[in-house]
Amino acid sequence: MACNPVRDRSDKNHSDGNMSKQTIVEYATRLGDDALILGHRLSEWCSNGPFLEEDIATINTSLDYIGRARMFLSYAAELEGAGRTEDDLAYTRDCRDFKNLLINELPRGDFAFTTVRQFLVDAFNLFFFEALVGSTDTQLAAIAAKSVKESRYHLRRSRDWMLRLGDGTEESHRRTQTALDDLWGYTDELFHMDPLESELLDTGVAVDRAAVRLRWEPLVTELIDAATLQLPQPYTLPGGGRQGVHTEHLGHLLAELQFVQRAYPGLQW
Amino acid sequence: MALIPVVEKTVQTNADKSVDTSVDTSLTAAGGGPAVTAEEVLRRRRRQDPDTAPLWEILDQVCDPEIPVLSIWDLGVLRDIERTGEHITVTITPTYSGCPAMTTITEDVEAALARAGFAEVSVKLTLAPAWTTDWISAAGREKMRAYGIAPPVQRSHTVACPQCGSDDTGLISEFGSTACKALYRCNQCLEPFDYFKCL
Ligand SMILES: [Zn+2]
């Protein structure tokens, strides 16, 4: 790949023992939470899609995201070595322990909102995972290699829908533009590097989100134009997902996601 | 399955093919199918290992729960079988991240080997290298077509209708009945069909 934002510093890999192990656990949890929460949002379309084929397509995309969440969270649990499993992480942590970015937890809205969010996030994921493939952490790299292929498919579909809705009827255009305006302020958080990720970037484990932005912006700008939509005026909403500070929506989402395990702890079927 | 000789170079893309004359073209499946990579040739050779050869045959009976005409070997999900004394380690890889079939496949592998008298079995899940549709065997592609699913083709090729063979087909949805399939329609016989996506 020509543009690889992951720095090649394999010599420093895992050199600081436990400290760096803990930061990788946190990093894998973040990526797992992003996938789990958005995967859950997409699953809410099951039986609510605009028509049968798109209902199925949305649910299949959801399944890819949840599969990705399972890989990241089971890796985090294994690396943590505290006897927890992916299920423990998904079903028994509370709001403040979830580290997903806020864009992923917003309610699914109408089909235009879901489409615009998927487009923005799919495009981000494609470039992010292309870079993570070069991670010095071999398990993260392996998960990324699987995810990148799927993200390519996801983006192909969400891009198509952006064009169809943006350049469709007056109503679809209006709804899509509204969704884009409402979501735009949440995109900044996708590219924020905090000290933990900067530290992991130095050891070649993490992805440089600023470099991902350089690839994301032109693609998104061009597609917005092709879909006859207007690029929103830049504005940034407060982030906080990585610190566990969420919108009021996450609690409601978790209430549904975790209900069975909260009501019947350890239940299996 | 015919044993295919190892080729010197790995063929991965159509672009490679056009410039690489060292490649034996008989390894390239017709109709947009994939060329056989050296890595895949090695996997096929593993079947000949006298230590594990009977085990590969036992696991030929384990099929994908969603496409029951395809064995996990045909699909390329079965990566390796190792034997240390009485202990058998089977390595499998998921097709898609969210593939819900892996648990069933793991159980089916254990059950098939147990029926054949092998009790000490562990099934290992590996992610790297990432599964690709190129690993589906030629026999698997044929079985898939006969089952009514169009096998994966490179993007430059048209997807032929598995019912009537017509090339006059169109995409209905990027996702079909499962994440690994897209939904197509045949404009000739007017039947809808699943297409196994090229991944
Ligand atoms: Zn036909």
TrEMBL record, chain B:
Q: Which domain of life is it from?
A: Bacteria
Q: Where would one find the signal peptide in this protein?
A: none
Which positions fall inside the MIP18 family-like domain? 56-116
Domain PaaD zinc beta ribbon positions:
155-197
Question: Which Pfam families does the annotation name?
Answer: FeS_assembly_P, Zn_ribbon_PaaD
InterPro entries with a match to the protein in the record: Fe-S_Maturation_MIP18, FSCA_dom_sf, MIP18-like, PaaD-like, Zn_ribbon_PaaD
Gene3D superfamilies (UniProt xref): Fe-S cluster assembly (FSCA)
Q: What is the designated name of this protein?
A: Phenylacetate-CoA oxygenase subunit PaaJ
Which organism does this record belong to?
Exilibacterium tricleocarpae
